[in-house]
């Protein structure tokens, strides 16, 4: 950053203490931690990022665990919208936080287009809560 080679920097798999330590050296633009419907171990980091305006990039964002089962609130919301469960899981992440920027990996264009379609899905308050509480 001092040399001008990069404009912004982030950290990966860090704790709140790690972000604070990094922030003493550079302005932290983003944090990339594992976070998804079934693994919310970085909830405190996400909340810190929200409070400090730091982008949060969840890796492995499509893991839905038991919510991928056919009788789950995730699947019910997906069926109502004729959407894939992955799209609905991404829609939940996008609604979860304004600093959330999920980047699911894919090798197929059709899957990429499906993932991008998640941005057009708006979960109701009831659906969001049901999915959130189901884990």
Return residue spans where pLDDT drops below 50 for at least 5 consecutive residues: none
Structural class: alpha/beta
In total, the number of strands is 3
Mean pLDDT: 93
- Radius of gyration in whole Å, from Cα? 16 Å
Helical run tally: 6
What distance lies between the first and last C-alpha atoms, to the nearest angstrom?
41 Å
Q: How would you characterize the overall build of this protein?
A:
The structure is a single chain. The protein is of the alpha/beta class and 135 residues long. It is 43% helix and 12% strand. It contains six helices and three strands; from the N terminus they run E-H-E-H-E-H-H-H-H. A three-stranded parallel beta sheet has the order 1-2-3, covered by helices on one side. The longest helix is centred in the C-terminal third of the chain and has 12 residues, at 85-96. The radius of gyration is 16 Å and the shape is elongated. It starts with 8 loop residues before the first strand and ends with a helix.
Summarize the structure.
This protein is an alpha/beta fold and 135 residues long. The chain is built from 6 helices and 3 strands, in the order βαβαβαααα.
Layout: helices, strands, pairs:
Blueprint: E1 9-12, H1 16-23, E2 28-34, H2 43-52, E3 55-59, H3 73-81, H4 85-96, H5 109-117, H6 125-134
Parallel strand pairs: 1-2, 2-3
């Amino acid at each position: 950053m001092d040399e001008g080679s990069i404009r912004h920097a982030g950290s990966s798999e860090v704790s709140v203490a790690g972000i604070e330590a990094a922030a003493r050296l550079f302005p932290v633009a983003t944090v990339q931690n594992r976070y998804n419907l079934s693994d919310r171990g970085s909830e405190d980091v996400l909340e810190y990022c929200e409070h400090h305006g730091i982008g949060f990039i969840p890796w492995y964002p499509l893991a839905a665990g038991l919510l991928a089962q056919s009788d789950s609130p995730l699947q019910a919301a997906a069926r109502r919208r004729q959407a894939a469960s992955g799209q609905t899981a991404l829609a939940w992440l996008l609604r979860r936080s304004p600093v959330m920027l999920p980047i699911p990996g894919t090798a197929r264009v059709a899957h990429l287009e499906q993932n991008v379609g998640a941005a057009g899905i708006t979960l109701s308050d009831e659906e969001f809560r049901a999915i959130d509480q189901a884990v």
